[in-house]
Amino acid sequence: GKKSLRQKAVDELKHYYNGFHLLWTDTKVAARMVWRLLHGQVLTRRERRRLLRTCADLFRLVPFLVFVIVPFMEFLLPVFLKLFPEMLPSTFETESKKEEKLKKKLNAKLELAKFLRETIAEMAKRNRADTG
């Protein structure tokens, strides 16, 4: 059914608490990775991607904190998220946003595959015409 305003506010607070908790955990893991890098160890591809994502999330956190610190600016947060959808750190994304992003990537890949298939078919027609 429909949630009350209080329940919506509690859900949002839980969402942001979990987001900050995940970001803190990622930051601790990234700090260990940086420590390993400074001591000459090599990171795996997965570790390197996680380190880059965490660093990007920390840089995205700076403008996000402005909305939290400045009074009544949190009411403008939805407007800025609509204008700049990548502004929030990845730990604050909801499942629906993640699915939407995956769908967009999949559609882009399908369009690229369709374009490449059509291009190859056109090249095959030209080659047949030239040789036959």
Automatic annotation (TrEMBL):
Highest taxon of the lineage: Eukaryota
Record membrane topology: Single-pass membrane protein
Stated name of the protein: LETM1 protein
Subcellular location: Mitochondrion inner membrane
Membrane-crossing segments per the record: 58-81
Organism: Cinclus mexicanus (American dipper)
GO MF annotation list: ribosome binding
GO biological process: intracellular monoatomic cation homeostasis
Keywords for this protein: Membrane, Mitochondrion, Mitochondrion inner membrane, Transmembrane, Transmembrane helix
Domain Letm1 RBD: 43-128
InterPro entries (alphabetical): LETM1-like_RBD, LETM1/MDM38-like
GO CC terms of this entry: mitochondrial inner membrane
Chief localisation class: mitochondrion
